[in-house]
Amino acid sequence: MKFFQKLKAFVWSRHFLKHSLYIVLTYIIVVSIVVIYLDQYTNHGEKIDVPNVVGMKTSGAQSKLEALELKIEVLDSVYKPELPAGTIVSQDPLPTSKSLVYVKSGRIIRVQVSKKMRLVEMPSLIDKSERISESILKNRGLKCRKTYVPTSESNGAVLRQLFNGREIKEGTKIPVGSTITLVVGQNNEAKPVTVIDLIGLTISDAKARLSGVSLQISVGACDGCTNAADSTNAVIYSQSPEFIEGETVPSGTTIMVSAEKR
Are the CB atoms for 239 and 199 separated by under 8 Å? Predict the structure, then answer.
């Protein structure tokens, strides 16, 4: 009994009550601060409709989202040649009208945008035959232009591969439809061929003219041509190598021509 009497007296003592009050007040203050901080940090109760930005340009979408205190992040680009470059094709999260999901200010809206250019890796064609190299380039959506250099070895094999006049390494990504220049070795013993004047001929006539000799033709430009028929009937106005009376080139040389629709 004496123990409980002493305990009761201690609990109701001024010293115990004062310290108990301090503890309760401290607890209330700490909890209040935490609640207020979390409420502000998490923007409790805030609801922002996510707008639909698909089909918009990134600059317009950014302005629209920033007005709502939202942010935008471009994840990557997808090949969509039918759309203007930089058009948003998908977003995450989806618009609130579709997902019924609301967000808070500062939320990042991640988007994918369109691109008109599709890239492909350049293969290694060094030491491969001319015909195989042309086939590889065609399968990858690349165009081919050939030049020939005298060589005592590697006759008919690719010695160098060039893009825009510079060496291009295997694995380099370039746009589909790009033209690759192949420098092909040609045996020095091959008989030289006289350059033929193609100026004023149509592409069709020029090909027929070269069919009986060891020369090839490649059309570098065709002004005003919109279809195959235009290209076939286009008239050549320049060629390289140029026609000079008596000038010869190695057998198999490609004559680059430019033509225009007439």
Answer: yes
Q: How high is the pLDDT of residue 113? A: 93
Between the CA atoms of 185, 191, 196 and 202, what dihedral angle is there, to the nearest 10 degrees? -60
At which residue do the structure tokens 């033209």 appear?
Answer: 179
* Number of Cβ within a 10 Å radius of residue 169: 9
Alpha-carbon span 5 to 2, nearest angstrom:
5
DSSP secondary structure of 197-262: --TT-BHHHHHHHHTTTT-EEEEEEEET--SHHHHHHPEEEEEESPP-TT-EE-TTPEEEEEEE--
pTM comes to 0.42
- Using a 10 angstrom Cβ sphere, with 0-12 exposed, 13-18 middle and 19 or more buried, the burial of residue 242 is exposed
Model confidence pLDDT, tens digit, residues 20-73: 777 888 888 887 777 666 656 555 557 888 999 999 999 899 999 999 999 999
Residue 175: in which H helix or E strand, if any?
A: strand 173-175
Instruction: List the single range of 81-90, 124-133, 209-218, 223-232 with lowest mean pLDDT.
Output: 209-218
Upper half-sphere CA count for residue 107 (Cβ side, 13 Å): 21
H/E run at residue 133: helix 130-139
